Amino acid sequence: MLLCFSIHQNYRLVGFLRLNTQFLGLTVNYLLLSFLSFFVGIIVGLTGVGGASLITPMLIFFFQVPASIAVSSDVVAATLMKVVGGFKHLQQQTLDLQVVKWLALGSVPGSLGGGNQNLDCILLRLIGAAIALVVVLAMTQLLLKIFLPNLKLPQPPEWDLNTNSGRIFTVSAGAILGCIVGITSVSSGSMFALLLIAFFRLDSSKLVGTDISQAAILLMFTSLGHLSLGTVDWSLVLPIWLGSVPGVLVGAKFCQIMPQRPLKLVIYGMLAMASWKLYQV
């Protein structure tokens, strides 16, 4: 009788220790996820890009989260992060509200129209190649301006939002990119940053704030689709919020005070990383 009681007590003790170990492991994982998300938030607040390019692979490869859950949880988490970041940039006056408005008028309907389509990975690679091409051209232009300041370079046409043609081009481009985001759930920041670099004459800090703000509006709608799928894991979303929301506020403040040329180099570096990620799909 005493032997049976002792065995039972030992079994309960082992079970208790196992549960405690699992609990401590989960706690450490959540703390680590928040810690890493804080630095991702800084990068997003500083450059406008890099959220999905960093958090989704981190969830899949580092935390062993299934891809569908990682993507959906990342989209929902990124929504609040970019809303907070966009509001911070609005307070700092480091965004162009007119550009945000006309891009959103195209991107939101486009994202809703693209939700049930299938996109070939070849197209994702083409997007990655296009981003890489623009980054190379922009870097070349920046270096030429540094070392040959008197050299006049050809510029792509600027879309003037005070004209009907500029508004039509902006809404149409927003619709196309919004459709791609609705299909793929990736690169809401990098693709729109590509558009802003090519066709709008914004300084670096306003480019970042505009990119984050339009992405926030777009993600508020695309996240609804992911919520309806039931693939959002709130035990992942909450730790990401705890890290990324303070991080994006810090990054937005850095964006306001950072010199233009170093900021452009950081933005181009993040775009290059995003293009590489897309090309590897």
Description:
The chain has 281 residues and is mainly alpha-helical. The chain contains 10 helices and no strands. Helix 1 packs antiparallel against helix 8, helix 1 packs parallel to helix 9 and helix 4 packs across helix 6. The radius of gyration is 22 Å and the shape is globular. The termini are far apart. The N terminus is likely disordered.
Write the layout of secondary structure elements.
Layout: H1 2-47, H2 51-62, H3 67-92, H4 97-113, H5 121-147, H6 164-184, H7 188-199, H8 204-229, H9 234-257, H10 260-279
Helix pairs in contact: 1-8, 1-9, 2-3, 3-8, 3-9, 4-6, 4-8, 5-7, 5-10, 6-7, 7-8
- What is the approximate shape? globular
What is the count of helical runs?
A: 10
Q: Report the portion of residues in β strands.
A: under 5%
Domain tally: 1
* Element order: H for helix, E for strand: HHHHHHHHHH
Low-confidence stretches are 1-26, 116-120
Main structural class: mainly alpha
Ends apart, CA distance between termini: 63 Å
Largest sheet: none
Number of strands: 0
Helix content: over 70%
Average pLDDT number: 78
Tell me the Rg in angstroms.
Answer: 22 Å
